[in-house]
Amino acid sequence: MTDNILKNITGTILLAGAGKMGGAMLTGWLAGGLDPRRVAVVDPHIAPEITALAAKGVVLNPDVKAAGAVETMVVAVKPQMFREAGAKLKSFVSEKTSVVSIMAGTTIASLEEVCGGAVVRAMPNTPAAIGRGITVAVAANNVSTTQRAVADALLRATGSVEWVEDEGLMDAVTAVSGSGPAYVFLLAEELARAGVEAGLPEALATKLARETVAGSGELLHQSELPSATLRQNVTSPGGTTAAALGVLMGEPGLRDLMIRAIAAATQRSRELAK
Length: 274
Prior knowledge:
The chain contains 13 helices and eight strands. It has helices at 2-7, 20-31, 48-51, 64-67, 82-89, 108-114, 145-156, 170-178, 180-197, 202-222, 227-234, 240-248, 254-273, and strands at residues 12-16, 39-42, 59-60, 70-75, 98-101, 118-123, 133-139, 159-163.
């Protein structure tokens, strides 16, 4: 379904910002069957791998006339650069253009004010770079069914997509999944550090931690069992895992720390949105 939508796009998909996330999305679109000649990229510092796509038909830094009728503009610039960049991008937006933003802490109202168009606000995360991201999106009231379907296909090119109706949820989404990879990387970092403290050589501790976190994540991805059940399946009564979980699940434990961490990130997202 996603591939069919991408293959049937007739207008221009304008990507504003081709950094790591924007570049990953572009790669996913082309792999999903989007005609490179339907893509235009606007970025003052285009990486060589993106420049190379010009040979396939991707248009780089076009003016408004060369870009043609922009069906969807995907805004992937850094949030702190949006006010400056958005004023320039507005010239590409017509009353028929949908604007899909993947900028953290940037509200639909701000996007409508700066760029115009029918706005979809989305929050992806960094595993999108390997096609394993998850994105949560919310659409403004004037986004049509067709525009939403195109936005879904463009976002789904880098992983799974969930839609919400309440924009107010996006701050918590940012805290859980947007920032979430950093929490997992911290787990691997601290697991390795604890292994060294327990007497393991640093290289071995690092290898064990990385592979354990990565493998457990893949098991969680492939299994239909709840994460709590998977945890219980590893835990023998009175065993080593139970001893460690007694610390992690004690008072105060990981649950309390995570609640506080998510609350702090959610609050910061709200502050940035203002």
